[in-house]
Amino acid sequence: MPRTASIDRKTAETHIQLELNLDGSGQADIETGVGFFDHMLELFTKHGAIDLKVQAQGDLHVDQHHTVEDTGICLGRAIHEALGDKAGIRRYGHFTLPMEETLVTVAIDFSGRYALVYNAPTPAAKIGDFDSELLEDFWQATAANALCNLHVLMHYGRNSHHIAEAVFKASARALRMAVEADPRMTGVPSTKGTLDG
Q1: Residue 186's pLDDT band (boundaries 50, 70, 90)?
Q2: What is the percentage of the chain residues whose pLDDT exceeds 70?
Q3: Residue 193 buriedness (CB in 10 A; 0-12 / 13-18 / 19+)
Q4: What's the pTM value of the predicted model, to 2 decimals?
Q5: Beta bridge partners of residue 159, listed in sequence order
Q6: What end-to-end distance do the CA atoms of the chain give, in Å?
Q7: Beta strands in the chain, from DSSP E residues, in sequence order
Q8: Domains in the chain, start-ordered, CATH in brackets?
Q9: Residues linked to residue 95 through DSSP beta bridges, in sequence order
Q10: Separation CA 182–CA 185 (nearest Å)
Q11: C-alpha 66: how far from chain center
Q12: Residue 94 has pLDDT above 70, yes or no
């Protein structure tokens, strides 16, 4: 059975409707009202070989923060829900990705515990009209709600667009590796017998 989840989260600041299929084929239907963010989520979907639908209505008249962060919350919750008890998955994933002059490594562990180490600073405060500092906020919200360890390391890079793109693509590839079935693993990949924290 496909591993899927649907999240509908409504607050005074945003309304996020998100559908995820971890066993998809890279189909994206993304509308957040933030063009650059939509582009990053489409890259994430394609390179993760997942299906992702996001409809977000946020208080963009204030700024982009609530929309981006709350989408991360919903994506993290959907990943956690879709993984279930995590039996038979690889659990760990990593990927080093070149994006022109930029090189980024992402490592992930679906341990049931949250940790984020984000070391991918962007030189520009804005990428188009997108607030660059929201990149880390998005991944923090995603990792916290997926209950995973997420480590993002930029080895080097100059162009902020390339840095952001490399992070999303490398994260997608690491996720893809971590959630795929391990034919040699029966049950939950932990000596504790659980990955619930």
Answers
A1: confident
A2: 95
A3: exposed
A4: 0.95
A5: none
A6: 25
A7: 4-10, 14-21, 28-31, 51-58, 92-99, 102-109, 115-119, 126-127, 130-131, 149-156
A8: 4-179 (3.30.230.40)
A9: 106
A10: 5
A11: 16
A12: yes
